[in-house]
Structure formats: structure tokens, C-alpha cells
Amino acid sequence: MADFYQTGIIITLHKLGRPSLEKIESEIFEFSKQRPIALVLPALYTEFQADAIKGIVEELKKVKYVQEIVLTLGRATDEQFKEVKKFMSQIPYEVKVIHNDGKRIKEIYATLERNGLSPGEDGKGRATWIAYGYIIASGRADVIAIHDCDIVTYNREMLARLCYPVVNPHIDVTFCKGFYSRVSDRMHGRVTRLLITPLVRSLQKIVGFHPFLVFLDSFRYPLAGEFCMITDLARVLRIPWDWGLEVGVLSEVFRNYSARRVSQVDIADNYEHKHQPLSADDAQKGLMRMCVDISKTIFRVLAAEGVVFSDALFKSLEVAYLRFAEDTMMKYEADAAINGLIFDRHEETKAVEAFANAIKMSAKIFIENPLGTPLIPNWNRVGSAIPGIFDMLKKAVEEDNKF
Amino acid sequence: MENFINVLLDPLKDFWAGFIVFVPKFIAMVIIFAGGIIIAWALKLLLLRTLLAANFDTWADKAGLTAIIRKGDIWGKPSDLSGKILYWFIVIIFLMIGLNALQIQAIDKVVSQFFLYLPRIFSAMLIFVIGYVIAGFISRAVLIAAVNSGYHYAKILAEAVRLMLIILILAMVLEQLSVAPSIVVASFSIMFGGVVIALAIAFGVGGIDAARRLIEKEYEEKKKKGEEDVEHL
């Protein structure tokens, strides 16, 4: 059981006692009549060859309050798309599969590209963004929930707890992010533990009080891929298509809504999904690439908020980060000890060194080109530039799903 | 015997004579058709280059033409589609010219009818494209005006206006193509007239009380004014 401490400036919803899933689900069912819910599932075809998706689909079959599932599928051939569509058809309510590599959706991307509205490269950012576009176009949902398709420990309580704060008009938050611990025989979540928190706190120390840093530090798991939001937010989101996606979403939420209407919710006692390799020697792969993209996004958001970055600031940041990360590591070592978990200090130190290197690289990239981090345009702008885009997108998805 | 041989050979001779006359015409047809394909290909290439230079695809996206094409489940670039249309159009024209070279009476008639019909196809296409753009423009203007006036059903109103205009454009297009013109005009008149009458009745029935109040108020005011007027003998 978690504590009940309210972290930072956002609302934190803990898992206290033994909340009844049936009660929450029946309430969501009633609320969803007024605020229909769509669930976005970004997935690669390879994820359909693993076991996690089977468990997720089994759980989703029991969910009664979701109006529509939009599975946005990447790296799949036409045959594989059909296979996925058939697999998803066992869910007894509306499921639409977006075939990102199909000729119709590719043409949508080409249309955006030639109008100067690049949706970026293939990846989770672009895949979820196109799903939001389809949900806006279909006009059937007021609330959008999203989670990954590689969650081994998935159960429908995760979804219910994620949706509840947004769909419940008495709580009325616009955005809710999931949090959880990622523990097996050791602690996982290295990027959150050893990069984001020490980096944000070092920045706070150097830059001083800044609302965005306080906001970001309020999230217990800022990199969680599970969140729920109102559809209106999906219209105004300008997100990076690279690994800076999660931080980018948080920065947009910060920019558009008051922190009083933002929440985080404890969705699981434990969470297990695939782990990325560190790839300390290659900044184009694994956690290193993720760290470079995330750091760049944080720098860009802060610069947009008026923070002046200089070589001197970055040099101080590198030193401050290392100190913070080492202190944090000690805290986790103690935490691991009291819980009987394995703690490989050498591996953790290697990760910190790699992350420090990633910060250095991202600082260099940022100094060279502060606007270098690409952002996907928001749907309001796209709709204004190409008036027929929503009809086109709806047609593309519906034609793809007709067979 | 000689007579019998003549009976046998005469059809063959006739066939040969016909064949001798037909072959050059057929070769002419094949050459014209092949030349047509080459010209069509060259013109298609030229059109594609021109459209690319003129940013036609971007214009089509903004004007809503791409959206119309997509409704027909066609997913190529608008410029590619225009190129294909031009290509097949020229190929068909050259096929007709080629068939004309055969000098067969029945085909000649079809060919001349085809060429007489061409201007109608052009004007119908023009009416459709310009009409669709104008319909989109008017629909957006109605939407903006209705939203600014705080009208709750602004989107439905704008869509209704667009639909009515598209029906009008389609009727004009069919009329231009001479596709059952009397039926098109009659059905359009009935539909359009029906909608106008329905609106008039709806407005009239819904506004009976308001109209009565207005008339009574005016009558009362006139009466009151009449009583207040001082009459001089």
C-alpha cells in the first residue's frame, strides 16, 4: 500500500486500501455515457508475436465502458495488418486498426508533408498522433486513454484507474498520468530514476525556481506511457516524434492547463514490460538515444519558457547532475537493501556516466540548433491548413478496416 | 468447271481486294494509335512537371479537391490523377481518330458523335470543379457567420448549405452532359422546390403566433394613433 503524500503541485491519486474494481468500473460506465472514452493502443507488429498482447486483449474483452479502441499499428505488411485486425476482432466492441504502413495512411502522411506539416519519422509519437487525429475526426469520444501493448502485468484495473479521474465530472481533470513501481528482483526504470529526477533537480538548483521544473518534478513517473486526457487536449498537443514524446506531452499540458486540473494516479503495484539496452557507446540506440532526446526536449521547453542556456550553465549542469545522480543512487541502494532487492552499484554507476554523457551531447546539439527538436504540428493547425484532412483520415481508416 | 472455280475464287478475290484496301487503313490506325500513346505520355509528363512547379497538389489539398478524390477511395496525388486522366483522354481521342482511319460508316458516326460531345465534357468538368470550390467557400462563410451569431447548429447549417449547393452543381453537370436532361431538371425542381416549400411551411406554421402578434400590435398602434389625432373642423 502506498502513502498518501501529495507530491508537488498536481493532484496525486494513491491506491489506498482495497478499492473495488467493480465499483470504479460501474461508475466509469455511467460517466462514459456523457463522456465517451476511446482507448489508443500504439503497437508494432512484433508485439503481436509476444505474450503480453494476449493478456491485454483478454482483459480488454471484459471492459464495458470503452466506446472504441484505436490500435495504431507500425511496421506491418498488409497481410500482417489483416492478421492483427482478425486478432483484435475478438474484442466485443468497436476496434479500429490504423495501418501506418498501408497505402492510404502513407498518402495522408505525404499530404501533410507536402503542406509543410511534417508528422515526423515513424515511431510512437507519430503513431499516437495519427490515432488522436482519427478520434477527433470520428467525433465519438470526449476522453482518450492510452497505454502500451507490451505490459506483461496488465490488468483492467490499470485502465479503470487511468480513466476515472478524467471521466468523473466531479474530479474533472484534463490530464491524468499513471505511475507505478517497476521492480522484479531489482529496480528498473533507470532513465526516470537516474536521469530525469537528478537532471530536473540539478536544473532547479542552477536555474532557480521555475514552474515547469516544479511541474515536471511533481510526477512520480514522468516517462510512463500510460495517460488519459480530454479530447480537446489532443487537438492542441504539439509533441516531439522522438523519445522526447512523454516530456513533450507534459510540457504541452503545462502550457495549456492549470496544474490544479492535472493529476497522476497509482495504476499498478508493479509494472513489467520490455527493457531497453543501455548502449552507452552508441547515442543512436537504446537508452542513450532516449536520454539525448529527453534532455533536448527539456532544454527546448525551458528555453521556450525564457530560460537562457549558455556554455557555462551546461558545464555547471554536468557537474550538478553527477552529484545529484550519485546521491540518488545512494538512496536507491538503501531502498534496495531494505526491500531485499539486488542492487548492482557498478551497473548503476555506468548508467549514470552514460547519462551524463548523453546530457553533454544533447547540450551540444541544443547549442548548435535550439529549434532542432522536431515537433509534430497540432491538429487544430492541420485542420486549418488542410480543411478536408479529417474526412480523408476517417475515410482512410474506415476503408482499411473494411474487409 | 471453270464456272465452279470462279464461284470458289470470287469470294477469295473479293476478300483479297478488301484486305488490300483494309490493311493500309489498319496500319494507319495502328500508327495513329501508337503515336497517340507517345503523345499522351509526353503530354502527361509535361502536365505533371507543370503541376509540380505550380504546387498544384498543395492547392488541391487546401481547396478540398483532394478530399473529393479520397471520397472515391483514390489515394494517389491529385497531380498524378490529373496526369492519368489526361493520358487516357488523349489515348481515347487518338483511338477514335485511328478508328476513323478505318473508314467504316458505323464507326465514323460514333467518332463524330464523340467529338461533338467533347466540349460538353469539358464544360461539365469545369462546372463541377469551380462549383465545388465555391460551395466549400460559401459553406465556410455560413459556418463562420453562424458561429459568430451564436447559432447552436452552425455546423449542421453549413453542411446543409454545402449539400444543397452540391446537389445544384450535380444537376447542372448532368444537364450539361445531356444525361436525361428533362428528368434531371424536373427532379431537381421538385427537390429544390420541395425544400423551399417545406421551409416556408415550417417558418409559416411556426411563426403564425408571432406574425399575428406583430399584425395586431401594428393595428392597435394605428388605431390608438387614429384616436389621438385631433380633428379640426
Ends distance of chain A: 47 Å
Number of domains of chain A: 1
Structural class of chain A: alpha/beta
- Could you list the spans of chain A in which at least 5 consecutive residues all have pLDDT below 50? none
The proportion of residues forming helix of chain A, as a percent range, comes to 40-55%
What features would you describe in this structure?
The complex is a heterodimer of chains A (403) and B (233). Chain A has 403 residues and is α/β, with parallel strands linked by helices. Chain A has one domain: Spore Coat Polysaccharide Biosynthesis Protein SpsA, Chain A (Alpha-Beta Complex), CATH 3.90.550.10. Helix content of chain A is 51%, strand content 12%. In chain A, the strands form two sheets. Chain A has an eight-stranded mixed sheet with strand order 1-9-6-7-5-2-3-4, sandwiched between helices. In chain A, strands 8-10 form a two-stranded antiparallel sheet. In chain A, helix 1 (21-34) packs across helix 6 and helix 7 (190-207) crosses helix 12 (311-338). The longest helix of chain A has 28 residues, at 311-338. Chain A is globular and about 55 Å long. The termini of chain A are far apart. Chain B has a domain at 1-103. Chain B is 88% helix and 0% strand. Chain B has eight helices and no strands. Chain B has helices at 2-53, 56-63, 65-71, 78-101, 105-148, 154-176, 181-206, 208-228. The model of chain B has no long low-confidence stretch (mean pLDDT 86). Classes of the chains: A alpha/beta (403), B mainly alpha (233). The interface between A and B is medium-sized, with 17 and 16 residues.
